[in-house]
């Protein structure tokens, strides 16, 4: 039940964030600092989430099949594979490494 | 002009299809992160911003609290406020349309709209991309959730590996140049260093702090990091693809 509350609040916060952009005066647009922080935040959060999902297991670092997924995803992106292909390869690598007996 | 003869609308439709399709991966990862079918769907319907949605379930899957998930999603959504300001100047929606425009303000609608020069074409690009992605993203989220629920132990199928790949793929188009790459590395290192010492969900917020300080102190270009997950096709054609 508490999860529902957070899901709904997250939706509300996201919508209000978008709406704020439509309501603030256009002069704020010229403050490039806000634009820049929004951009660096996006990069930083996505980089962090990539590492969390690769190495974290609760509060511990774990080195397992997910590292293989990261390596192959990186290779696929270098070869300009589309998003969905990259995701499917990430899944396939982790599944195969586990089938081979790795954690 | 008929909608299907408008190049902007066609671009919007192709971006909508490409983006909407990967809603399937969000749906599958959503139900395996601990959310149920309707909670996953509610994120696509109400939160509706790919990066933030993946952040929410990514923090939950890593053992973080719903509060930490909410925090990461909210911070990742700040760029949408910047898009809102720019789109408000381009599209000028009035009355209730403004609420609808705000809801479909995401990376892709911003990218396809700003790629157009003509104001009418900008409007077509915006609405076709925004509404198109909303409909397809939600449909494919539902499909992914059903698949995710059906497959049993997500680890056997490598779904945790799929999440790793999804986040890297979301990050990838934003790493054009040395500075964004340096920000990504700094935040990745900060994350790994703090994982053993703070509760799950907090490392992402530590990385956000690093990124924000870097953004305030550094002197790089203003639009760094504000790239779409799926590039508009004709933009991709400008020298990046054969």
Task: Give an account of the 3D structure.
The complex is a heterodimer of chains A (103) and B (242). Chain A has 103 residues and is mainly alpha-helical. Chain A has helices at residues 2-23, 32-55, 66-78, 83-99; strands at 56-57, 60-61. Chain A folds into two domains: 1-60, no CATH class; 63-103. In chain A, strands 1-2 form a two-stranded antiparallel ribbon. The radius of gyration of chain A is 19 Å and the shape is elongated. The two termini of chain A are 33 Å apart. The relative contact order of chain A is 0.07. Chain B has 242 residues and is an all-alpha fold. In chain B, helix 4 (50-61) packs antiparallel against helix 5 (66-76). Chain B starts with 6 loop residues before the first helix and ends in a 6-residue tail after the last helix. In chain B, 60% of the residues are buried.
SSE inventory with pairings:
The complex is a heterodimer of chains A (about 100) and B (about 240).
Chain A: H1 2-23, H2 32-55, E1 56-57, E2 60-61, H3 66-78, H4 83-99
Antiparallel strand pairs in A: 1-2
Helix pairs in contact in A: 3-4
Chain B: H1 7-21, H2 23-32, H3 37-47, H4 50-61, H5 66-76, H6 78-91, H7 97-103, H8 107-114, H9 119-150, H10 159-171, H11 178-194, H12 202-217, H13 233-236
Helix pairs in contact in B: 1-8, 1-9, 2-3, 2-4, 2-9, 2-10, 3-9, 4-5, 5-12, 6-8, 8-9, 11-12
Short description:
With 103 residues, chain A is mainly α.
Number of domains of chain B: 1
- Structural class category of chain A: mainly alpha
Radius of gyration of chain A: 19 Å
> Strand-and-helix sequence of chain B, N→C?
HHHHHHHHHHHHH
* Approximate strand percentage of chain B: under 5%
End-to-end CA span of chain B: 31 Å
Backbone CA Rg of chain B: 18 Å
Q: Give the overall shape of chain B.
A: globular
* Structural classification of chain B: mainly alpha
Largest sheet of chain B: none
In which range does the helix fraction of chain B lie? over 70%
Number of DSSP E strands of chain B: 0
Please, what is the average pLDDT of chain B? 89
Q: How many domains make up the 3D coordinates of chain A?
A: 2
Mean pLDDT of chain A: 91
- The rounded distance between the terminal residues' Cα atoms of chain A is 33 Å
Largest interface, per-chain counts?
A: A-B, 80 and 111 residues
